[in-house]
Amino acid sequence: MKPQWSDAGKMRKAAVLSCLVLCSVLLGGCWDRREVNDVAFVMGTGLDKEGDQYRITMQIALPGQLGSSGSTGGGGGTRGTKSYYLESKIGPSFRAASIEEQRGVSRTLNYSHRRVLLFSEELAREGVSKMMDVLARIPQNRLSSLVVITKGSTLDLLQADAPIEQYPAEMVRELNYSYMRKPLSIKLLVNSILADGMDAAVPLMSLVKNGPANIKDKKTNIQVDGLAVFHKDRLTGIIDNHLSRFLLMGMEEAKETEIFITPPKGTGYLSVDLIQNNVHIKPYVRGNDIRMTIRMSCNGNVRENETTFDISNERNLKWLEQQVEERIRKELGEAVRVIQQKYHSDVLGFGRTIMMNLPNEWERMKPQWDQMYPKVEVTINPNVHIENIGSVTKPFGIEKEQIQNE
Questions:
Q1: N or C: which end of the chain has fewer CB within 10 A?
Q2: Alpha carbons 155 and 174: distance in angstroms, whole number
């Protein structure tokens, strides 16, 4: 006998079949797929100002040239050709110039792998906020891309040979991480612009040629030239390589800082590499009398002793620590005076320190902070401890009679 189905059973069967049909509709496969061969991956973007127009330069990776047995090096790519292609167009805005870029590229531009965003110094001095909206509005843009300021045009820097890396944008990224503990991404830069009592500091990079002028077939390379300091969204000044090393220490952003000290007698240098640096800023506010004390705890190693000074002697080692402390106090003090009085950039976050520790005082002085900040009195108290003087305790290659014990 054939099984008899009740009305309820028939309805359940119909419901199951309907669900299966609907599921098959949802499993439509890759109807909106985009093949890799149809996509152009942008690895770096540079922004320059030309009159009232913006020039956008995009560095696009060429997957077929990214290393193989025929590769001639990172930037060289296979068969001696470069591993990237540059597309550069102008427009009245960031987005308009990007649209012009797309018209000249046969593949769809994809920004999800962008490593770095470069602003020319000229453009950054006018302000960078206007260019930030499109970066946040379109989800494909990576807010983790690192920000760099270039001396000269970004177009020139993105054309560097950069023979160590496969493309210049990657070299810019690696230089960022070797220069600062936490390089500024697009997201962190915007946070600094919008935050009260804190300004941003971004690495400044330039195009250089490797070696002296008499070398043939020189390659162009990229180097860090210091720090570009901001007030709100505008670049206000450049801190050179020398002072920027100490300013990074005050910001607690220095990876390593090597300091050279001359001995009390004779010639040569003692090199101390500060490998660890902790900073604590304490505010003091009494009316309009504002003071900041920067306490620093630094640990370091001796990397070189080309003098006759014996640092295995405990008293001499203490003298060396004191000399390093004095150098930090002097150089960081000079850097603070420059950012306060010349550039009005609060990259050390004095305002933020007051806001976190003395919120009521901050609310009172916040409207006049721009006028009060340059007058803040700053005291720097570094404490240096040399942990290791190396495997050689006395000056190497120096006769015993020549070594200075005092």
A1: N
A2: 19
CB 110 within 8 A of CB 42: yes
pLDDT in tens, 43-69: 999 999 999 999 999 999 987 765 543
H-helix or E-strand containing 234?
A: strand 234-239
CA distance 318 to 384: 9
| Contact call for residues 340 and 258 (beta carbons, < 8 A) | no
Domain ranges of the chain: 35-239, 240-391
Token representation of residue 178: 């070797």
Q: What is the rounded distance in angstroms from the CA atom of residue 235 to the CA atom of residue 118?
A: 13
The DSSP element (H or E) to which 53 belongs, if any, is strand 53-61
Encoding tokens for residue 180?
């600062």
Looking at the chain, the number of H-run helices and the number of E-run strands are 12, 13
Place of tokens 């120096």: 398
Q: Could you tell me if 90 and 116 are in contact, meaning their C-beta atoms sit under 8 angstroms apart?
A: no
Q: Name the 3-class secondary structure at 177.
A: helix
CA angle 354, 124, 204 (to 5 degrees): 85
CATH topology of domain 240-391: GMP Synthetase; Chain A, domain 3 (3.30.300)
Residue 53 near residue 90, CB atoms below 8 Å: yes
- Looking at residue 313, what DSSP letter applies? S
What is the tens place of the pLDDT at every residue in 92-141?
Answer: 988 898 898 889 888 889 998 899 999 999 999 999 988 888 888 888 88
Q: Are strands 289-305 and 257-261 parallel, antiparallel or unpaired?
A: unpaired
Q: Is the dihedral of CA 197, 135, 96, 56 positive or negative?
A: positive
